[in-house]
Amino acid sequence: MPRTSHDAPDNLPRARHWRDDAACLHEPPATFFPTGKGPDALYAKGLCGPCPVRTACLTHALTFREDYGVWGGFDEDERAEMLAEARKAAEKQRRLDREKEKVNASSAA
Ligand code: SF4
């Protein structure tokens, strides 16, 4: 049975969303948009540690390129680094695939 969403303006039943199980469900959103990397940021990351939907939260932030805040326990700089690493890995894989295609093409000729 779908629960009602806390955000739904009409309060009609909606499918369950990962945010419904978030450890931060009742935290003020500003908690996750700290200034700098000091104690406020560490506090936000500490809340994320045991969160049962941490992976879904991080996936959302990476997929939708959330530019600011702590998502899934990682701040914007850490997520930018993850995305840069993923881009580098994808570029390397494409280069390897192209070299493999060349080798296959030359051995077939
Ligand atoms: S991982 Fe952190 S920001 Fe994401 S839902 Fe959980 S507590 Fe909230």
Structure description:
- By secondary structure, the protein is mainly alpha-helical.
- The protein has one domain.
- Helix content is 49%, strand content 0%.
- The protein is built from three helices and no strands.
- The termini are far apart.
- The mean pLDDT is 91.
- The site of iron/sulfur cluster has 14 residues, from helix 1 and helix 2.
Topology:
Blueprint: H1 39-48, H2 54-63, H3 76-108
The structure holds iron/sulfur cluster.
Q: Which ions and ligands are bound to the chains?
A: iron/sulfur cluster
Low-confidence stretches: none
Instruction: Kindly name the structural category.
Output: mainly alpha
Distance between the termini: 61 Å
Gyration radius, rounded: 20 Å
Beta fraction of the residues? under 5%
| Helix content, binned percent | 40-55%
What's the average pLDDT?
91
Number of strands: 0
Per the principal axes of the C-alpha atoms, what is the gross shape?
Answer: elongated
Give me the number of helical elements: 3
What's the short version?
By secondary structure, the protein is an all-alpha fold.
Write a concise keyword list for the protein shown above.
single chain; 109 residues; elongated; 3 helices; mainly alpha
